[in-house]
Amino acid sequence: MQTLDGNAIAGLLHEIFGREVTAAMATCGTCGSVAAVAEAVVYPLLPGAVARCHSCSGLLMVITRVRGMYCVDFSGVAALEAPGDR
């Protein structure tokens, strides 16, 4: 299965959040690794976009679109800090 990095979902994340998100630092809820969203391993061709931790392959996020509405599951992200949020 083809994988890409987190930049592959940059436009999708911008559409959902209204700002650049790939530079945000995400903490993996499985292994605690901290990395930019751009470093996630993305599976873009599933029934939605799936992003996994680059360190442990733990599930970070799933984004699907159902009846014109985005369904966003970030349950694998323990923390998300955008640049400049400190």
Structural account:
- With 86 residues, this protein is mainly beta.
- It has one domain (4-81).
- The chain is built from one helix and eight strands; from the N terminus they run βαβββββββ.
- It has one helix at 10-17, and strands spanning 4-5, 25-28, 34-36, 41-43, 49-52, 59-66, 69-73, 77-81.
- A five-stranded antiparallel beta sheet has the order 1-4-5-6-7, with no helix packed on it.
- Strand 4 (41-43) and strand 5 form a beta hairpin.
- It is globular.
- The relative contact order is 0.24.
What's the gist of this structure?
With 86 residues, this protein is mainly beta. It contains one helix and eight strands, in the order βαβββββββ. A hairpin with a 5-residue loop joins strand 4 and strand 5 (49-52).
Indicate the topology.
Blueprint: E1 4-5, H1 10-17, E2 25-28, E3 34-36, E4 41-43, E5 49-52, E6 59-66, E7 69-73, E8 77-81
Total number of helices: 1
Summed over residues and divided by their number, the pLDDT gives a mean of 93
Characterize the main sheet.
Answer: 5 strands, antiparallel
pLDDT < 50 runs, ≥5 residues: none
Rg over CA atoms, rounded to whole Å, is 12 Å
Q: How are the strands ordered across the major sheet?
A: 1-4-5-6-7
* Dominant shape: globular
Percent of residues in β-strands: 35-45%
Helix content: under 10%
How many domains? 1
H/E element sequence: EHEEEEEEE
Structural class: mainly beta
| Number of β-strand runs | 8
Terminal residue distance: 37 Å
